[in-house]
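Memo to structure team: turn this sequence into C-alpha cells by end of day. - J.P.
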Amino acid sequence: MGVILVVALVAWWASRYFKKLEDSRKKVDSLPCDARKNDIDRLSRMEAKVDSINEQVSDISKWIMHVDEGMIDSLARKCSPMTMTKIGRDLFRESGAEKAMDENYEFLLSELEQKKPQTPFDVEDEALSVLLANMSHPMFNEIKNYLYYKPERIPFTDENGDRKEVRVSMFAVIRLMGLDLRDRYLDRHPEIK
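Reply from structure team:
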C-alpha cells in the first residue's frame, strides 16, 4: 500500500511539473519576438541616421565658426598651430571652460581617441567635433550660465594692455576648449607630432 501511495505521489508531482513546463513553452512560443526584432532593427537604422545628423551639425557648426573669423581672431591666433591669445585665455578661464576641461578631460580624450585622428590637423578638427557632440553634457552648464547672464560683447584687455570688446558665444568658447583638448591629446600622443 505504501508503494502505491509513493508511486501516486510521484505521478501527481510529475504531471504538475510537466504541466508547468508545457505552460512555460506556450508562453515562450507566444512572445512577440519578431515584433521586438523589427523594433531593434528600426532603432539601429535610426541610430545611423542620428550619427549622420550629428556629423552634419558638427560640420555646420565648424563652418559657422569660420564665417566669423573676426571673433575667433581676437581669441586665438594662427601661430602654427593656433594658440589662445590673452583675451582667449581670459575668456577660457572666466567662462568656466578651463574648469570644465580640467574636470572632464579624461572623458573628452577617450571620446577623441575613438575617432583615431592621424595628424595634428585631424586632432584639432575632431576635438571640435567631440565638444560639439557633447554640448548637452552637464560639463557645459556653467559655461551656458556664464554666457546667458553676460552681454553679447564683453570688454577684455589684450596683450598690449588695450581694452577690446569681444563678442562671445558658445561657439567661441568651444573653439577655445577645442584648442585645449587638442593640446592635451597631442601631449598624450606624442607619436602624432
